[in-house]
Design brief:
The structure is a homodimer of 341-residue chains.
Chain A (H helix, E strand, L loop, with lengths): L14 H8 L3 H8 L7 H14 L5 H8 L4 E6 L5 H15 L4 E6 L3 H15 L3 E4 L4 H9 L3 E5 L9 E5 L1 H14 L5 E5 L5 H16 L9 E3 L4 H14 L5 E4 L2 H13 L9 E5 L4 H4 L5 E4 L2 H16 L8 E4 L2 E3 L8
Parallel strand pairs in A: 1-2, 1-3, 3-4, 4-5, 5-11, 6-7, 6-8, 8-9, 9-10
Antiparallel strand pairs in A: 10-12
Helix pairs in contact in A: 1-2, 1-3, 2-3, 5-13, 8-9, 10-11
Chain A binds a DNA duplex (16 and 16 nucleotides) through helix 2 and helix 4.
DNA sequence: CTGTTAGCGCATTCAT
DNA sequence: ATGAATGCGCTAACAG
């Protein structure tokens, strides 16, 4: 599976060409083109003009070889086809772009092998840093061993202390639950696909906190564990609604499970926003288009991506503080799927 | 906006280190690690083992400098936050990944300057090829001048002949219109944001062909031009439905306009799938979740991306045929939003 | 089959 | 302020 490497295509001008055309030496060209080092204003202008005239563009590979680093940032994303992650990636890209860097994007399908390959590739390219959404402690270690800056986005990688940007999952879980409580709901179920990470665990914790604060006793049987796909979620939610007919509100922990929750409600002939309130995390497009519109916590993935990139850029600028954890406040978007009991 | 370049991080082993450790010369290491050139099986194994042992990973920048090309492929995408394009990008990434290449992704927001910068960057990195979705003839020319292979996806770039992968827009337009005709609709409106490109123009042509084939006279006043955003589309569709109360079916030419069309129908109190049939292009997630579900043409953007990558890889392998245009057949997905008159 | 030599294009010493 | 020389790490000629 190694790529064939076809030789050159078009020969591009080098510093030497610019030097000749401007009547100076290559090193002067190099200095003039950067802000670093000395060069008389006159020469600087001359060189710049000449470079532009003959269409000189510095060869990134030569420069990177010399500098032992590159302007590229490696980005490993959990699932580009999930709009939540696509937005996150867009946020990263947006911020990198405006600081003259660029993103090498690897989609983490295809199992753990792909992640390992990505790490090797990032290292081989000497990217200046890496942003990670899938949780993988080994990967972080490997990257660190290469001396690369690592920023995690969306979820924490095990117990490792890395720069980290996440939604404020606990607060979000609490706020969403409180919203339902304020509508008079007392039997609120939570549909969950994992509780090991902050995305699952944090939201669960927030949910429980809110329930307790309302003077209720959390009922573990209302917390339904399911798998990560919509089909499984639909089945689990259906079982839950059957086993606990007194449940008046259902929270799905992300956009995929929300899909399942909506399907289950329909299947159970519970009218959303009337017989059953449904709320979810991840404010993706369809949630405002279904009728009734879904009440959600918008976690602002674009912003999470942006902040992750900013944290990384900050490290690259030499920031030397201990690992930071930035919490992006989620935003409650109330629509018609949640209604008074 | 130029990136700071912080010096090295961790010193990594080089060919020389492997050579010393294995007791051979650097060039032997190089040969042994590749399939190219001669190396005795014994030495080959020894070198491979040694390299693995000391954790050698070839420096991509050095290799690229030498080879005057890289394993990177530049990808310029119109809008990563649109699920259609996110899927397309995922398709590209998937295919590149399995052939040992990787993707440098630039999102084409931020105006034309960003595109220009991307071209310069791709060229500077000596990417082995570029895949483009936004339409920009200048960009293609610039890239070509650098000797880079260019593949366009989704839309054709002006009149330039490049490798190209698109949905079969005309057929798709025809099939979707025929579906409505077969349900007895005679006054079918089309909501369109542009007609210069194959995405708009092709679908329009297919629509007109179908109408004519049914023995009807195309009525230009049923083709409503609008802007690219959902709000504008909603307004245009509302006007259309008001001006032409006899319209019984409405086609939106992409997922964004579909959003507007649905809003307009609701606003006009026309019950979708009952008083008004609505159909759209781009089968994105929400279309199967709204009720009634939207009848759509799924253009299979992931597949379009995949095929675009394959075409490019083929060029990189030396394929020398003239420019090819590959049409990905769209798939009609019938749901409840379209019903007999 | 293997080692020696050289150069890809750049940015940085060190002289001047 | 500028030029000459050097080496980043790799691979491909060219000997042997």
């Amino acid at each position: 599976m190694t790529a064939a490497r076809t030789p050159p295509a078009g020969s591009r001008p080098t510093v030497l060409d610019v030097a000749r055309a401007a009547g100076v030496s290559p090193s002067t060209v190099s200095r003039a083109l950067h802000d670093r080092g000395y060069a008389s204003p006159r020469v600087r202008d001359l060189v710049a003009a000449t470079a532009r005239r003959i269409g000189y563009v510095a060869d990134a590979n030569a420069r990177n070889l010399r500098a032992r680093t590159s302007d590229a940032v490696g980005v490993l994303i959990s699932d580009l086809r999930n709009p939540y992650y696509a937005d996150l990636a867009a946020g990263i890209e947006h911020e990198l772009g405006s600081s003259g860097r660029h993103m090498v994007l690897v989609n983490d399908d295809g199992g753990p092998a792909k992640g390992q390959a990505a790490v090797a590739m990032f290292s081989s390219m000497r990217v200046s840093g890496v942003i990670l959404t899938p949780v993988n402690e080994l990967m972080v270690r490997a990257l660190r061993k290469q001396g690369l800056h690592v920023v995690c986005a969306d979820r924490r990688a095990g117990r490792l202390r890395t720069d980290l940007v996440t939604a404020d999952d606990e607060a979000a879980g609490r706020v969403l639950t409180e919203h339902l409580l304020s509508l008079g709901h007392r039997r609120i179920a939570l549909l969950l696909d994992e509780r090991r990470w902050s995305t699952g665990g944090g939201r669960l914790a927030g949910y429980q906190t809110a329930v307790r604060s309302a003077g209720l006793e959390p009922d573990d049987s209302l917390v339904a564990m399911t798998s990560w796909d919509a089909g499984a979620a639909a089945r689990t939610a259906t079982e839950l609604l059957t086993a606990h007919p007194d449940v008046s509100a259902l929270i799905a922990v992300n956009n995929v499970l929300a899909h399942g929750a909506v399907a289950a409600a329909r299947h159970a002939r519970r009218r959303i926003g009337v017989d059953l309130s449904v709320a979810a995390f991840d404010d993706v497009a369809w949630m405002s288009l279904v009728q009734p519109g879904l009440t959600t916590m918008d976690q602002r993935p674009f912003e999470i991506g942006r902040r992750a990139a900013i944290l990384l850029l900050d490290r690259l600028d030499g920031a030397d503080e201990p690992a930071r954890h930035e919490l992006i406040p989620a935003r409650l978007v109330v629509r018609e799927s949640t209604a008074p009991v």
